[in-house]
Design a protein that fits this description.
With 272 residues, the chain is mostly helical. The chain has one domain. Helix 2 crosses helix 10 and helix 3 packs across helix 4.
């Protein structure tokens, strides 16, 4: 995919509609009737469960890069948490991210940062990207698993079930904050790893792309902002390699390791 042909890509209308609904729903948090400290607490907790345990630890470090091994039941749990972030199916997410590493900041990179902040942040998702057809090639370890097939296809119905549960628990304020606001927050935190950490920050390693280490993205994403480190050592379970590079997900993996639930933990060949 070249810059010239990318202008001819068709808009992905279902994705655009979905994004409009989710972002529009989050605006209802501005209504005083939807304000609730309990609802905000639910949103913060689910942000950690779906964004931290689900996307950062589960989809990314465990499933995409296999930076450690976990019992299958625990792997499934983290995958389920990631599915509840509603960032597409788990197989599609893993496949697209593996493509990103293979072609980072090249024309075949789905969110090539050379095309600007908007494109790498979310513009690429609103188009029918040809590279999506390559997902099957890079997800052989997941695509034949019935549980992952289920999660890949049913992530929206599962979100609706969560919304129903939250409504029964605390009414519309829980739905607005626990689903819409939380989804938007996790969306943009995740997307900042594709955009901001290819634009802002410092570089410790020559990784062959524009990846950077960005402290504020790391804080928002439980350690994913140390992106230059990650691109230099993509299979490492630890992304924050210097003492000041706080990596909450690495701390979680260390905890799992101490409990015997994380094994064969991979680390960078060298640090800083």
């Amino acid at each position: 995919m070249t810059a010239a042909t990318s202008k001819k890509l068709h808009f992905d209308l279902p994705v655009i509609l979905f994004m409009a609904i989710v972002h529009g729903g989050a605006l209802f948090a501005l209504l005083p009737s939807n304000f609730s400290w309990a609802a905000i607490g639910i949103a913060v907790f689910l942000h950690w469960v779906t964004g931290g345990l689900g996307i950062t630890l589960g989809f990314h470090r465990l499933l995409t890069h296999r930076s450690f091994q976990a019992p299958k039941w625990l792997e499934y749990f983290f995958a389920f948490c990631g599915t509840m972030s509603c960032q597409g199916g788990v197989i599609d997410w893993v496949g697209m991210h593996r493509l990103h590493h293979l072609y980072s900041d090249q024309p075949s990179d789905p969110h090539d940062s050379n095309r600007g902040f908007w494109w790498s942040h979310m513009g690429w998702m609103l188009r029918e990207i040809p590279s999506r057809d390559q997902v099957d090639r890079f997800t052989k370890d997941l695509r034949d698993d019935p549980f992952y097939q289920f999660l890949n296809k049913q992530f929206i119905p599962l979100q609706l079930l969560l919304a129903l549960g939250l409504y029964l628990l605390g009414g519309w304020s829980f739905v607005v904050w626990g689903v819409f606001v939380r989804l938007v927050a996790v969306f943009h935190c995740t997307w900042l790893v594709n955009s901001a950490t290819h634009q802002f920050g410092y570089r410790t390693y020559e990784s062959g792309d524009h990846s950077t280490n960005c402290w504020w993205v790391a804080l928002l994403t439980y350690g994913e902002g140390w992106h230059n480190n990650h691109h230099a050592f993509q299979h490492s379970a630890r992304h924050g390699l210097q003492w000041w590079e706080i990596d909450f997900t690495w701390m979680t993996i260390q905890l799992l390791q101490s409990l015997g639930l994380a094994k064969k933990v991979k680390l960078a060949e060298k640090e800083g």
